[in-house]
Amino acid sequence: MAKFHTLKVAEVRRETAEAVSIAFDIPEAAKAEYSYIQGQYVTLKIKLNGEEVRRSYSVCSSPLANEPMRVAVKQVKDGRMSTYLNTQLKAGDMLEVMTPMGSFHSAMNAGNKKNYVLFAGGSGITPMLSIIKTVLIAEPKSTLVLLYGNRDEASIIFKAELEKIVADNKDRVKMVHVLEHSPKVEGSLFRGIMLPEKVKALIENYVGLNLDNEFFICGPGPMMRNVESTLIELKIEKQRIHLEYFTVYVDAGKAQPVVEIPTIESSVTVIMDGEETTFELSSKGKSILDAAMDAGVDVPFSCKGAVCCTCKAKVLEGKIQMDKNYALTDQEVAEGYILTCQAHPLTEKVVVDYDVV
After folding, report:
1. Where in the chain are the domains?
2. What is the pTM of this model?
3. Mean pLDDT, to the nearest integer, of 130-150?
């Protein structure tokens, strides 16, 4: 069960003019709870001007590399949390950090001979670095291709670290930069943004589609949709495509179908830490997450925008409808998992369990 602990900041390292990475000192008693899988994220909680702010950030370290757990944070315009972390946080400070979550990964197996194709944009490199370092350790027969889009050379996060990884693993790792603005870049394939035509050309030039490929995509929403649609056009199996959104991206293709439903007064029971809390909720009222919070339940959440999986729970009884879903896979939905920040009851009784996640 995901929960917060207060952790000491071990290091704040400047990665670019707009991004820092933050390493945490995890006490021995909490290390088991902070065991993580490559590609996962943690949620940070701080108070700014008296208001609680929560944001999720991907882990960029590897669980196999004997290094402290580290996240990267890019400062965004008007971003309260990212601005604070980039301009004020320092080593020795204490932060509320939720235990790791997320499903942006595939199982490691020393016998695998896979080719991991990583499409990253901007700070979307953060979980990719974790994946790269872990694959290199856990799967000696596997290879990786990183296709990384940025504004310019100065905005490339982890540039030196990535270059060293490539230099040390020339037979296993390829890295291709696509820069929107750079006078030094020659060739149209490496300039501009990742529109579908460019994505297709990058795949044709750097990815053997006859290999046992696993695709991972993380970056700005439009880029992600361009890559995903291209892979679908190339008839890549859906289970080989992994997506990790880090911002809310309005996309009609991802929204749930709008279905007119009758107004139903539902008795909703939420199970959290083994305790049951029941409240009445209209099918056209608040989300199950917000209603549970109103009822005094300390439910986990972060973005409230259907992007992260922090508020994930499982429906044990009844039916619900989600407004949006950018985070759960079709299989997870079929198994009864929901994003409670987007969920509304459709039956007179609904039971939702946070403890089974």
Report:
1. 4-98, 115-244, 265-353
2. 0.88
3. 98
